[in-house]
Amino acid sequence: MNTAPASYPIGTPGTPWGDAERAEWLSRQTRQRSYESDVLSVIERLRPRFDVEEYGRLGYGPDSYPLFAIRSRDWRDDLPVVLVTGGVHGYETSGVHGALQFVEQHGLDYAGRVNLLVAPCVSPWAYERIHRWNPHAVDPNRSFREGSPAEESAALMRLVAPVRDRALLHIDLHETTDTDETEFRPALAARDGKPFAPGGIPDGFYLVDDSENPQSGFQQAVIAAVEQVTHIAPADGNGEIIGSPVVAPGVIEYPLKELALCASITSAPYKTTTEVYPDSPRATPEQCNTAQTVAVCAAIDYALAHR
């Protein structure tokens, strides 16, 4: 694993970024892959079997990004709603492709049982640039709140608002990568004028439960399914994963609403955030995508059985 730089190359240590530093950071971001080729083309393939709606458009001049959601074609008001989100952090590849793979391979398995609402790539600008933030150096996954500074987050909240209180389940698909430690955490510290404290990256899959409404049985059911396809992250020497106590194998808890995280945007009794580790020598990209897909299926199955 690469080590983090001694100091981030933008800004003055101890001083939060201003407009000049944000502009310098933005000037360093380059498109590295195509949202249209990787994501929109797959959504087009799904149109014959699912309803697709454009729920927003990001105007990041000169680029414009349509935001798409995929819905069950047999939507019925008497069925529970299942929300699946991916790509809130655009660089977390398996979150995007795992969501699409779930719809393509298993979406119709739940026809007539749940209403599926899937937003596979919440942050397409960041997807193309393999980054955590949007072009304003704002993290969408700390911005799911009223008056959100991130249009990605605001658009998703508008989409979900009509079904917010009818959701049975929300599963938000993420990754934890080596670049969290080498790029994104140092950038965050520099942006906010704080010292960077080196940490570790857990090797394996884990889940983040809601500390305000923990659902241990639900989380453990998802872990049990995923460990059939990839390994589960162990606790570190302090009994923690990324600084949080491990409450069950592969499970930690966050106060989702307090942190304005994506998984807080519904009143669903069952919520979880997945985290895979694509940089592990023990996991392939295909395994990571499959782990996300298996997690979604296991989460739906448990929620339906315990509603």
Automatic annotation (TrEMBL):
Residues 31-307 form the Peptidase M14 domain. One of its GO terms (biological process) is proteolysis. The keyword Metal-binding applies. This is Peptidase M14 domain-containing protein. Keywords: Hydrolase, Metal-binding, Zinc. Its cofactor is Zn(2+). Gene3D superfamilies: Zn peptidases. It comes from the Bacteria. Belongs to the peptidase M14 family. InterPro entries: AstE_AspA_cat (IPR055438), Peptidase_M14 (IPR000834).
